[in-house]
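Check this.
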Amino acid sequence: MAVDGILKDAEAKMGRSLEHLEHELLTIRTGRANPALLDRVQVPYYGTPTPLNQLAQVSSPEARLLVVQVYDRGQLGVTEKAIRESGLGLNPANDGQVIRVPIPPLTEERRREYVKMAKQRAEEARVAVRNIRREELHRVQAQEKAGEIAEDQARRAGERLQKLTDTYVAKIEGIAQRKEAEVMEV
């Protein structure tokens, strides 16, 4: 595989790491309601743990309210209990038709906890991007040893990989800072 192919692979993998980070950060609570907040909630659906978003439609009609419309009305109570026990600090109310989940304002201590979580997820993404760089650099070096590419071509590929890595690390920083600002916003 040519050096350009290796660089394209690296960029695609780094892009997936960035998308994963964005999805992970959506599940961290902020002061306002976001349907992705309930993505990780598992509901015991006839004995099988099932993601909430497969059993119900979650919407956010107001800034501090989520509405969960369960497809199978017989599962309202189980779904409500799963949300309550999810560890998100939410207290859902079931009116027989839908489940309303008011989003309480965050305390300062809880905000700091969520910022730490966001920083941890961002660090995991940075590590993933650096690991991708290392793996792709090993591929370039293997091609150089095999005589498939010249030494200067391998060095240039390494420099381009480093620039790509720096670009993605900067994007991760930006995303993490936006999330921190969002969490700390009162």
Summary: The chain has a mean pLDDT of 89. The longest strand covers residues 56-62. The domain at 3-26+107-184 is CATH 1.10.132.20 (Topoisomerase I; Chain A, domain 4). The beta strands are 42-45, 48-51, 56-62, 65-70, 93-94, 99-102.
